Amino acid sequence: SLEQLPKSETIELRKKHIGDSCSLFYKQEPLKIVRAKGQYMYDENGEKYLDCINNVAHIGHCHPEMVRAASEQIALLNTNSRFLHDNLVICAKKLSKMFPDPLSVCFFVNSGSEANDLALRLARTHTKHQDVITLDHAYHGHLTSLISISPYKFNSGKGLPKPDWAHVAPCPDTYRGKFRESDYPGSDLGKKYAEEVKSLIKGVRDKDRNISAFIAESLISCGGQIIPPANYLRNVYKYVREAGGVCIADEVQCGFGRVGKHWWAFQMQGDDVIPDIVTVGKPMGNGHPVAAVITTPAIARSFKETGIEYFNTYGGNPVSCAIANAVISVIENERLRENATRVGNYLLNSAQKLKDKHALIGDVRGVGLFVGIELVHDRDGKRQPAVREASLVLKRMKEEQILLSSDGPDANVIKLKPPMVFTVENADHFVRVFDEVMTEIGNGLLTNNRTYSPERRKISGEEGENHLKHKRTRTEKIDPSKNADEMVIKT
Ligand code: PMP
């Protein structure tokens, strides 16, 4: 057994010794995952789950190249970055080759939050301004400085309030946002949403305040798997720079080739759209904590001129950098960006077709292996979020051993951000089961007390393996009009 404790005891100990606010997926019936490989995770009973959301296990869980790089380096040396080490400079060189000029200077840190916090420091030091513009519903990390620019956290009204220096621009969501494609057919919504930022800047300056930075994810995850319209970043960056601010692209979730065609999602907005600071994390270490800030020589110089040295005990240690180097090599050698485009397009097309069958599917959008399926009522009219139905989908898909999550301010967007080794067969399996679950939900009542069919639940993609070991009873009579109490977690 791969367990040290029975699951009930793990749950008991967690309740007793772990802060109650630390979230769990599927909190009613949490999973205990004991091993993983590629795009599959296995629980303590050997049950196999298709992982559609783990955008951290980018090159696949426990990729042998990454495991080898990590173990060889940890057996040899791990120490802080005050000594010269080749892994660090090789990683910096690789990263800077992946970015357009002048993005060429790296700072290594341990998490997306640390990267964004440092990005804010760099911006404030360089511009000598204080204020920050962020997008509504955004999440940029768990540090105090980042909760302050994460409407997802402060909108709830439960935690720290929004500080005066943070300013919130509307999320450029053309499906259910302030300006919708359906209301403005054919118009330049990128420009229209950017003008909102322009007037926000004017309001800030009228109060004798000044903008140090605009920060946004280049593809907006927490806001609901949103693809900003063309011309959005180009115009926003222009207005922000005119106001003396710098532009930060948070690529913590969407970077490292997830969009397929490019390494970074901001590149989808055009070759001339180049941020001043980019933050990267999650996929960079394939599960190991390593992240980075990439910026321009000019911004790095301003930071140096403060005379305050930057030291981060674990940031850029030889093991972290060995892992990041292995991740980048695997993406290149296994052509995972090409795979993201091919499988992503296939998945999008197949999911699009389900719109004809299921009126609840309002929008299917995505690029590469970053996909959102938005569930709404009255899709030809008001488009009210189908919140309970989305929650039921997650619950039922879990029973079918497919791990999914939802996102957006109403948690009604089913999100897929699978490891980049996701296959066409995985996409088929997802679509087939999702179709069935949507039919059940569309029929108003979920099936009563049926047992799983082994054939249906067989996850394709691994030769001859029937992962089904236990027959279990599935969801009994769930009435979608009642709250399914599914935990929604933003990652
Ligand atoms: N930025 C974005 C867009 C994120 O999604 C996250 C994590 N969910 C972070 C920053 C913070 O990263 P970390 O959890 O590694 O600190």
Automatic annotation (TrEMBL):
Q: Which UniProt keywords apply?
A: Pyridoxal phosphate
- Pfam families of this UniProt entry? Aminotran_3
Q: Where is this region: Disordered?
A: 446-491
Q: Does the keyword DNA damage apply?
A: no
The answer on whether this UniProt entry bears the keyword rRNA-binding reads no
Molecular function as annotated in GO: pyridoxal phosphate binding; transaminase activity
Q: What InterPro entries does this protein map onto?
A: Aminotrans_3, Aminotrans_3_PPA_site, PyrdxlP-dep_Trfase, PyrdxlP-dep_Trfase_major, PyrdxlP-dep_Trfase_small
Reading the lineage from the top rank, the first entry is: Eukaryota
Bias kind Basic and acidic residues: ranges: 453-467, 475-491
UniProt-listed PROSITE patterns: AA_TRANSFER_CLASS_3
Its cellular-component GO annotations read: mitochondrion
Q: Which family is it part of?
A: Belongs to the class-III pyridoxal-phosphate-dependent aminotransferase family.
> What is the name attached to this protein's record?
Uncharacterized protein
* Biological source species: Laodelphax striatellus
